[in-house]
Design brief:
Elements (H helix, E strand, L loop, with lengths): L6 H11 L28 H5 L1 E2 L2 E2 L11 H22 L9 E5 L17 E4 L4 E5 H11 L2 H19 L7 H20 L9 H10 L17 H14 L13
Parallel strand pairs: 3-5
Antiparallel strand pairs: 1-2, 4-5
Length: 256
């Protein structure tokens, strides 16, 4: 990630709140083959899909910054999964990298069971263990607010992949969305500690102030795709960023 302050991440997190993370159908549903989805310039992301051989991670893409959108998308995925591989290993577990990383445009994305992909979204699907994202939408965010967009949205979605590996009853709900925010914060905190991201005075205040305005308009606990209120998301992200992954256990699921 480019050596910049965290302020652009505030807007990125506000945008991430609008990500649908659509309700996940049961594991017994049949996944529509993601190869049937229309994708744009998938070759740009070929490294992201080929950086895993035999189920293990490579370390080729752990440089400080990508030079463009496609490189930053690859890097955000690689760094996030590197983080989780380390966390799982420290707990005596083996992290299973996502199987596919699928860019799409508009409504031409892969289905997840009986749930169709929607525009301006990113999501994790446990059936097939993949992450998909609307490439045009994410690139617009990248152009408008900086590379922070990919370093929030991608870690959040991969966070759902982590949850699916730690529980046998994975379903999206408010607590799991907040935990994914916490996971994203933990990844950002790790990037800062590793020197891959710099923070400037006042960045945290602006970041958390923007998060306060983000979130679902009501506390609808029964909605499986509810993300939580702005203050709740603010607190979850801050907990992960400042305290690390252990802080994310309070949202219910085990943590590695």
């Amino acid at each position: 990630m480019k050596p910049r302050g965290l302020a652009p991440l505030a807007t990125a997190l506000a945008a991430a709140v609008a990500v649908a993370c659509a309700p996940i159908p049961g594991f017994e549903d049949v996944l529509g083959d993601p190869r049937n989805a229309a994708r744009v310039d998938e070759g740009e992301f070929e490294e992201a899909n080929s950086a895993r051989e035999g189920g293990s991670l490579t370390r080729k893409s752990t440089t400080l910054a990508g030079d463009n959108f496609a490189e930053d998308v690859v890097l955000a995925r690689t760094l996030t999964e590197e983080y989780w591989e380390q966390q799982f290993a420290a707990d005596g577990r083996e992290y299973r990298p996502i199987q596919r990383f699928i860019p799409y445009v508009g409504r031409n994305g892969p289905a997840c069971g009986d749930q169709e992909a929607v525009p301006e979204n990113a999501f994790y699907c446990p059936i097939g263990h993949f992450v998909a994202f609307d490439e045009r939408w994410l690139e617009e965010l990248y152009d408008e607010i900086g590379d922070g967009a990919v370093y929030v949205i991608i870690p959040h979605e991969i966070g759902h992949a982590v949850q699916a590996q730690l529980t046998t009853d994975f379903r999206l709900n408010k607590n799991r969305e907040l935990q994914a925010d916490c996971y994203a914060g933990a990844v950002i905190g790790w990037l800062v500690q590793a020197g891959r991201l710099t923070k400037e005075e006042g960045d945290d205040e602006e970041l958390f102030a923007n998060l306060a305005a983000a979130g679902d308009p009501t506390d609808e606990w029964w909605r499986p795709d509810a993300h939580g209120t702005g203050p709740e998301r603010q607190a979850a992200f801050q907990a992960g960023q400042s305290q690390g992954i252990s802080a994310c256990a309070k949202f219910g699921d085990p943590v590695p």
